[in-house]
Amino acid sequence: MPAQQVITDKLHAAFKPASLRVVDESDQHAGHAGARPGGETHFRIDIVADAFRGKSRVECHRLIYATLAGELAAGLHALAIHAAAPDENAR
Amino acid sequence: MGIEQFIDNEVKNSDVVLFMKGTPQFPMCGFSGQLVQILDYLGVPYKGLNVLDNEDLRNGIKTYSNWPTIPQLYVKGEFVGGCDIVREMFQAGELQGLLKNKGLAVKENAQA
Question: What ipTM is given for this predicted complex?
Fold first, then answer.
């Protein structure tokens, strides 16, 4: 299964997001130290879920990193994250 | 000295510490480069530590902060965030406020 689908599925299962967008930006990092043949190293995640309400930015990102710990250990190199609760400003 | 003790000393002995890939003069990663630009723009003195020089440091900092990616910014011994968080804080003026609250001078005209 493509990493984009795995990440999307895991985030859906963990956070029941009101909205979720996962974009593979690996081609923007080709040649960079974290890149690898075949890509799937760099993703952008825009997620809105109640789970993030009242949490700091660091707490929100840590929740997402924890959900994707297996992928990060297996070659996923970097995530650009915007996480917010519904009605909160994106952060 | 273990790597955790080394990191602990570094973040407590300098007001602002950036764990990055490359150096402030020659960032080797776009995300690290963005934080260098922000810190330079704010005119805040900081210490840059190149994790590419030291595999123990590269892995150790991820454990130390419970944060799996680099760059990582510390102010007065506290983990502030990675690239996205620091950039968003800068754009919202929150980073400038945090630095001032910690007693660190920020260039007066440095607005987001």
Answer: 0.81
